[in-house]
Design brief:
The complex is a heterodimer. Chain A is mainly alpha-helical. The chains are: A mainly alpha, B mainly alpha.
Chain lengths: ~180, ~270
């Protein structure tokens, strides 16, 4: 094969470089032009618009994805702010309720204490009255017992005393 | 110590070459045979319409481009698969190059520049397959590519700027006395552009493939010690894969630079 082609080269141009064999130039140029036209048509009609479309579409997808991500991020920040605000509101409300309740309870307590004080004072007054009555009763009883005892003692001693004198003496002693 | 080892290996290689070399192979290295343009069917005369191995490998470059750019992107996924990632990478790479180097108003030439890039990169890579034919190693092909760019750029320059395009050659920032001389130099360099543009690509691909063939010839001649050139082939092949992409990149970015000159000729 090698010797055959070598012979062909020698026969074709006589030169050692097939590149300088001018008899093949028109053939190569013709087929090159055909090749270039075919590649140009294929590329400019089909391949390049399609690849450009794919690249543009990808760029569009990336851009819109980024925009969507930005949107979602803003929404997340909004949601967080709303949550924090709601939390702060709820806390303030709770504190207000606690303060109100405390004031209410305090008022009720004060009222109850005042009432109890009144009742205690009333009871104390009643008791004092009762004590005074009992005391008076007791003094009367002591006077009676003292009169009787004095009369008996005077009788035993052989005296005879008038009832009015004894009462007067006892009253005088008890006063003293 | 290292030197002795080196010479020992060298001597072994030479001796083994003498002892184990297959008698019929010898050093029959024909590195340029891989570039011969042949008809695909029969063995006759090559007319301009004859399907040749150049036709076959250009057709395969079209198929590879379609497979990558059309079938790879057919699912239009938002999250791309492997083929779609590569297609988008190629698109973004060339698009950014056009935009950055040639300016925003050059974007309407993007399909044209993308066509050049895809054809060159596919032809270069396919040409690296063993027993394949590297279409971009032929000056006929690269010259057409470079002339297309040259003609386009010149026409665009005059259509966009009228006679103002000639300001590209009139260096207004230089002293007045120097300007005619600079204009001649600029004019020459302008017309040398398609030459360097095409020979850079064709020469790189041709040289790399020829070197691979030369080493392959050594491997055939060295018998048991053919592993040495095979290592070299591996290394050169890796370099050639790099060159395949770099030359496509260089061709494309130079196209962008020329286009920038046409759209904005003022220095």
């Amino acid at each position: 094969m090698a010797t055959e082609t070598h012979g062909a080269a020698e026969a074709a141009g006589g030169a050692s470089m097939p590149q300088l064999d001018f008899s093949t130039f028109s053939n190569q140029i013709f087929w090159l032009v055909v090749t270039l036209v075919v590649i140009y048509l294929v590329l400019s009609r089909v391949a390049l618009p399609r690849i450009a479309g794919v690249l543009a579409e990808r760029q569009g997808t990336i851009t819109s994805d980024l925009a969507a991500a930005e949107d979602l991020k803003a929404k997340a920040v909004d949601a967080e702010n709303a949550y924090n605000k709601a939390l702060a509101d709820a806390r303030a409300e709770a504190q207000r309720i606690v303060a109100d309740t405390r004031a209410e309870i305090q008022a009720e307590l004060d009222e109850a204490i005042a009432k109890a004080d009144d009742q205690i004072a009333a009871k104390a007054a009643e008791s004092e009255k009762a004590i005074a009555v009992i005391k008076a009763g007791a003094l009367e009883s002591v006077q009676v017992v003292a009169k009787d005892t004095t009369a008996e003692i005077v009788a035993v001693l052989g005296g005879n005393a008038e009832a009015d004198d004894i009462a007067e003496a006892v009253a005088g002693q008890m006063k003293g | 110590m290292g030197k002795i080892f080196f010479y020992a290996v060298l001597a072994l290689v030479v001796v083994s070459g003498l002892i184990f070399a297959p008698e019929h192979a010898g050093l029959a290295i024909h590195p340029m045979d891989q570039f011969v343009v042949q008809p695909l069917f029969g063995d006759g005369h090559i007319a301009w319409y004859t399907p040749t191995n150049a036709t076959l490998w250009m057709g395969l470059a079209i198929l590879a481009t379609v497979a990558l750019m059309v079938m790879g992107s057919s699912r239009r996924s938002i999250v791309p698969g492997r083929a779609q990632s590569v297609a988008e990478l190629a698109y973004g790479f060339v698009y950014k190059m056009v935009e950055d180097v040639a300016g925003k108003d050059a974007v309407k030439f993007f399909p044209y520049i993308m066509t050049l890039f895809m054809f060159i990169v596919m032809a270069n890579v396919l040409g690296l397959l063993p027993t394949s034919f590297a279409t971009t190693s032929h000056i006929a092909v690269t010259a057409v590519l470079a002339l297309l760019v040259f003609v386009t750029v010149t026409v665009v320059g005059f259509v966009k700027n009228g006679a103002g395009f000639l300001g590209l050659f009139w260096v207004s920032s230089a002293p007045l006395a120097l300007r005619p001389i600079l204009a001649i130099i600029e004019l020459i360099s302008y017309f040398v552009r398609p030459v360097s543009h095409s020979i850079r690509l064709g020469g790189n691909i041709m040289a790399g493939h020829a070197v691979l063939k030369v080493f392959a010839g050594f491997a055939g001649a060295l018998g048991l010690f053919s592993f040495l050139p095979i290592f070299a082939i591996t290394a050169v092949y890796a370099l050639e894969v790099l060159v395949a992409f770099i030359q496509a990149y260089v061709f494309t970015i130079l196209t962008c630079v020329y286009l920038k000159d046409a759209l904005h000729p003022s220095h």
